[in-house]
Amino acid sequence: MWRNITTPTLISKIVFLNLISASLPELLSSPEWLSNRTYDYYAHLDRVPLPWTPVKAEGKKVEVWGRVMSWGDNIFPNSITSGGRELLVAPIRLVVELSGGEQAIPLKRFRITKIRRSRVDMAVEGEIEGIKAHANMWVEFDGLLWVNLRMADKNKQREVESLRIIVPIKREVAKLYQTFSRQLAGWIGDKPIEFSWRANPKETIVNFYHWFGDEEGGIGFVYSSLQNWVPLSEDNFCTLIPKEDSCLYTLNLVEKPSKLDGRLFKFGIQATPIKPLPPDYFAFKAGTLFYDAWKAINRLEADVDMALIWPQPNGEAMVGLNNPYNVRKEVIERAKTYCTAKGIAFLGVAHCPQKIAPIIGEEFDKYADAWKALPESISDWEGIPHYQNCGHSYTLRKWLFYGWLIKNVKEFGLDGIYCDGWMAGTMGCANPRHGCGWRDREGNLHLTVPVLEGREFNKVVALFLEDNVKAQLPKTAPERKGFPRYHFWIHSWEFVPPVMGFATEWLTGEFSAWPLEGPSMLTSEGTYGKCLGLGLFRARCLSTNWGVPNLFDPIMWEATENHPTDRQTIMALAWFLPHGVPIGMMEYMNQNTLVKITEVLRRFQIRNSRFVPCWRLNPFWRIEEPKTKEVMVASWENKNNHNVLTVVSNLYPNKTVNVKLRWLGDRNAEITNALTNQLLELNDSICQIQLEPETFVLLLSGIRNSPKNFPKKRLKDDFIGGEKDVS
User: Of the candidates 127, 322, 343, 616, which lies 20 to 30 Å from 292 by C-alpha distance?
Assistant: First the structure.
């Protein structure tokens, strides 16, 4: 059993042995996945995984990687910085409305009660006119501030008019928003945004995460339940009100005359990005495993980060969507051998951990009622009913962990796992058998979300993978010193960093064709300009604002061998390249075009280059005309020879543009089209290029026979919080 544990501390050993001795009868009668204590061991570790740093706390200040929270005269932070940039205009206030009007409850006492490497615990108290607020808070290494706020009133029969938490976010920061709702994401306009607990009344999807920020980062809020809340309506339990210098985000805890005494509110606050990005995140590539020689994944083997098995024709590797104990060993071993020979990390079979089906065996008969999410949600996959499960169930978490981590990753020697969907949070749940849901005084049933349970599961997965996996890197990749050497890749339409942030990569993009249906999504009509728009793309799909490489799944297919068109592929790269969005599932693209463009990028060694994304001030090129967000420039500077590769994109879906660029580097530079090798003419440092809708050009800049003198303007090593292009 100790073979599953590689770095136990003395305290962790004691915890582990106590867990065993306390449940010896259960060990003798339980299945191996339940009696095995590896999951419990990792769940109790006080350890900080890569690439994070230990928590620091002193006085009224808590510091984690990249972010600082400090308290002043209020119960909640008066300052939250990310990358040295202040996110708040003023302190976060807890405001109560009595007969005399609204008053902020001032801070009375602040105590740090416990400090560990991975977490600091605090007790915070405030009081006004006999109303007391006591908040037990903790901050973990990823920057999540979790709050358990309990209210008390000396006058227990008194009713207050309202109780709100008001978060004034800087307007210059709050440009974009993203929520756990397909509709609520994009640019923040000038009108209030109301957040409903139910993302869709017809589904049990709960809108339990709200994020506000820009391309560099921001601040997010996460909720597990509205129990004890009294909003005017669950259709507006939180509100964002844009103003000239701020965006006021309000938690509408109580909006009707109500007694406060005994009410408990739970929620989390987390500034982003939550961790540093690998140096070559923008060049990550991944795909599904095919053995056809013409597939890009095989032709670019030295430049591909990871591969997995999906889809599975006729259940070749695994029947169903989540069947970890019945994966075919010979298929996995053949794929593992193939990937190892090509230098590609192999993640096994794509699976959906949020689903269970009768095909898993006797566990379904014994545990399904306790594992299901209620109201029941069933998906049909190849004639097999798959039921939505809920990660609040401890036995489900144990079953998943042992099946996918021990029976697959450890026994097959995988380089990580890929989850198509994620544990705990896809759906709301009201199953009382594992502790979800609650009823109000009228008997109405309400949904909850297992935020902390899902968070624990993903953290345990990351710790286990860190101890048991050392995946190979692409030959073109830098060392990535200080970063994990495993892959924990999660696919989701929406992102919740407090729960999902322990993953090493995310995958998005399946929603890109959502506004279109049928054949139109496969033609030139189905473009990102029409389906997404720049606001939604930046809110959902960047890596810089999260700290997690966010690969994009370009599902508008040009996938057949020698496909006659590459319009969709060019369109996708026009969006990806200037934003530094890496490619996931690259087999959907035109394979020949993808290989051709990737070879240009690889020859330039972009993985070992410094990248300036399109929203930052570019030190090499300035767009003189047109001044619009949809026309953009981004650059890579090769750190070895200081040459510059630049992408210029036109993201208008229906508009051809004539782009006038000013070169800011050495006047002796030669500018060529990197794909055609055509020499471009500079007139008084001006270059003019015509770009069709949703297309791009790659420009190579260098000085022949004198690379060390080029360019005069160099990039800074650290861009976080740096200058941005105001266009």
Answer: 322
Quote the CA–CA distance of 266 and 259 in Å, as a whole number.
Answer: 18
Q: Phi-psi region for residue 380, left (φ > 0), alpha (ψ -120 to 50) or beta?
A: beta
User: Do 505 and 549 touch, CB atoms closer than 8 A?
Assistant: yes
d(CA 544, CA 217) in angstroms, rounded, equals 7
Positive or negative: CA dihedral 611, 616, 622, 625? positive
For residue 459, name the pLDDT band (cuts at 50, 70, 90).
very high
d(C-alpha 329, C-alpha 79), whole Å: 53
Q: Taking 90 as the threshold, does the pLDDT of residue 23 lie above it?
A: no
Of 271-275, 425-429, 475-479, the least confident = 425-429
Average pLDDT of 383-409? Answer: 97
Q: Alpha-carbon distance 446 to 374, whole Å? A: 11
What residue type is assigned to position 363 of the chain?
A: E
User: What are 277-288's pLDDT values in tens digits?
Assistant: 999 999 999 999
Give the span between the Cα atoms of 260 and 153, in whole angstroms: 7
437 in the same domain as 347: yes
Q: How many Cβ atoms sit within 10 Å of the Cβ of residue 430?
A: 17
Q: Residue 199: which pLDDT band, with cuts at 50, 70 and 90?
A: confident
> What Cα–Cα distance (Å) separates residue 358 from each residue in 38, 312, 314, 325?
26, 19, 18, 13
What is the DSSP code string of 218-287? EEEEEES--TT-B-S-GGGSEEEEE-SSEEEEEEEEE-SSEE-TT-EEEEEEEEE--SPPPTTGGG-BEE
Distance between CA atoms of residues 155 and 343, nearest Å: 69
Say if residue 693's pLDDT is above 50: yes
Q: Is the pLDDT of residue 713 over 70?
A: no
**Within a domain: 495:** yes
How confident is residue 556, by pLDDT bands cut at 50, 70 and 90?
confident
Count the domains in the chain.
4
Between CA 192 and CA 199, with CA 194 as vertex, the angle to 5 degrees is 145
Pair 152, 103 in one domain: yes
pLDDT of 69 strictly over 80? yes
Identify the CATH number of the domain in which residue 452 sits.
3.20.20
